[in-house]
Amino acid sequence: LGRGTFFQGTSRNLDDLKRGTVKFLVGTWGGPEPYAGPDLYTAHASLGISSRMWDITLKCAEAELKKMKVNKALLADILAEIDKMREPVCDPQGRMRQQREKAIVALSGDPFDQDAIAREAARQKQKRDELRAKIAKYKKQREEELKKKQEEER
Predict the structure, then answer these.
(1) What digits encode the pLDDT tens for the residues 34-55?
(2) How far apart are CA 18 and CA 145, in angstroms?
(3) For residues 110, 112, 116 and 118, what is the CA-based torsion angle, rounded to 10 degrees?
C-alpha cells in the first residue's frame, strides 16, 4: 500500500507522524534522547487503528527491514518489539481504556482527579524507562558480541 492509498482522506501530516514515530522508537529502544511524549494508548486512542491496519503496518516494517538487509535475529527482535505495541495502539478489546480508568479510580476514587492522572502517567514513564534500560543492556551485549567476533576474525 502506498502512502497515498493508506492515509488517503486523513488530515494528518505524514512527515510529523514519521518524526513522532522515530522519536518514540529511538527513545524507547535506548537512544540518546528519552521519549517524553504521550504513552502509546494516549497518543492513539482516538485514531481508531484496527488490528488489520496494524498487520499492514507490521508487514511494511518487515519489508523495509529486509530491504535494509537487517540480519534475521535482529529482524525478529525488532518485529516482536513492534508487535508488543499492538495492544496499546489498537486496544481491540478496550482493555487499555478500562485499565487506565481503573488505575485512576484506584488512586483517587475520582476518574477526573488530575493528580491521580499524573501519578498514573509517572508509573507509565517508569515502565518505559525500565524497557529502555533493558534494550540498552541488550544493545551493549550485541555490540560486545560483534566486537569479539571481529577480533576473532583478525
Answers:
(1) 887 878 877 787 778 888 988 9
(2) 31
(3) 180
